[in-house]
Design brief:
It is built from no helices and 18 strands. The chain is mainly beta. The two termini are 25 Å apart.
């Protein structure tokens, strides 16, 4: 997939306030995502994701996001176009589950474009059935904690205003009384906690039926982190979501909803 962006070089001005601006030039670069050892992996395994292509401009940075399916990327923000995807340790009763991983291209904090790859997470092969004289009964697998954004926020790259609606979602596999939600908005290449109050973290409560909702500032992408209730010091502004923190048990992200044309 070809990407493009425009560079403009501005020369310094002289004592007589004469400025010279060179013509802008558009640079095209070709990029795609590759997975090693492949795009099909088992639960709990890893895949190395690499941006491959040519004509990459200087100063390009990469933001790695998991749009659906679970797992983590380490690092989430990089300068060399490489990350390691860690598959979730369980996919419930499914035999396989698709996971969409997106890499966004940034220059000086401004998003240029994005590319995505779909991975397939497969359940491990079942163990052989126990012999008939076994005295131990098999136990059903535990339900993995999950969080889902059911209503995303609106798409607005400026991120300067409070939306007049709410982000909504639901969780499963956990006790709502022992967990809470962290909402984040991505704007200008950084994640901001929602609702945003400078200097203090703000959590969203989970209702008894597993539902949650809250107000937010607009952005281009949104994240919901399912956290342990005792966590009280999350980052309020960050380049990288705190997905590896021991207090985060599950997460999901969703693109902003664009207004119909």
């Amino acid at each position: 997939m070809f990407k493009k962006f425009t560079l403009a070089a501005v020369a310094g001005f002289s004592l007589v306030l004469f400025a010279c601006v060179s013509p802008t030039r558009t640079v095209f670069f070709n990029a795609r995502l590759a997975a090693e050892p492949g795009s099909v992996i088992e639960v709990g395994q890893t895949a190395r994701l690499t941006v491959v292509g040519q004509n990459f401009p200087e100063g390009l940075r990469y933001q790695w996001l998991i749009d659906a399916g679970g797992g983590t990327c380490d690092p989430q923000n990089s300068a060399d176009g490489v990350t390691t995807y860690q598959a979730p340790t369980g996919i419930g009763e499914l035999s396989e589950k698709p996971v969409k991983v997106t890499v966004e291209f940034y220059i000086d904090g401004a998003k240029q474009d994005e590319e995505a790859i779909t991975l397939t997470i497969k359940a491990p092969k079942p163990l052989a059935s126990p012999s008939s004289d076994s005295s131990e009964a098999s136990l059903p697998p535990a339900t993995s904690p999950t969080v889902e954004i059911t209503k995303s926020g609106v798409f607005d790259p400026r991120g300067e205003r409070l939306a007049d609606d709410t982000i909504e979602g639901r969780v499963s596999g956990v006790d709502p009384a022992k967990h809470k939600i962290l909402l984040f908005t991505l704007a200008g290449g950084q994640w901001f906690i929602q609702p945003y109050t400078l200097g203090s973290g703000r959590f969203t409560a989970i209702e008894k039926n597993g539902r949650f909702s809250n107000t937010y500032h607009v952005g281009v992408k949104y994240a919901a982190l399912l956290c342990k209730a005792e966590w009280n010091d999350p980052p309020t502004q960050t380049l990288v979501l705190p997905l590896t923190d021991e207090n985060v048990v599950a997460f999901s992200t969703a693109d902003g909803i664009r207004a119909p044309r």
